[in-house]
Amino acid sequence: MDSIVVCDFDGTITKVDCINDFLGHFADKKWLEIEDDWVAGRISTVDAMHSQFDLIKGMTEEKMEKFFDSVEIDESFKAFYDYANKNKIKVVIVSDGFEYFVGQVLKRHGIEGVEVYSNKFSFENGKFEMDFPYINPSCKRKAGTCKCSFIKKFKQLYKTVYYVGDGASDFCPADKVDFLFAKNKLLDYCQKRDIPYIQYTDFNGVMNNDRFRYNNR
User: In order of start, what are the domains of the chain with their CATH numbers?
Assistant: First the structure.
């Protein structure tokens, strides 16, 4: 495979930010203050996640299952993923959210086999357990999963690296890839800093973009 597509998850594949939606449903509203500090770069993902999930009380397996059933995704992602597989284009998800959330949502939408690199999460005996195996102490974004580290690795393995994102966790890798597909906060960020981007609204827009198709014929 000559090309790889690196996808963010929350707000990119899902229609809303899955983590924020979860916190909005179940956490004390103080989570929003913590979120503001994280977006501004004043605190790390690790500190933000621990503090925000500590604000959730009375969580049960049943509540979590019902929540995952409610999460909607971009309907065109599956067609995009199938197209990429058919044309031998690697697709991976690199997320500063949780692998467990990604897996649960994709499974409910019948999507299997996507490689996921993200923070680890489990819920046992009423407690949240988190692990951050892809942390990089020198990460400027203070991310739990350092996306720039993955981009550096993929640039050595693939001729062309595409990136599809939408939010604050995508700021750092934005200027380090060959082609960037951006929307929402990421789009605003790129416009203010003159970072080249391709605007998109859904994965149909990525799949049918000339620069994506031309490089993968």
Answer: 3-16+73-214 (3.40.50.1000)
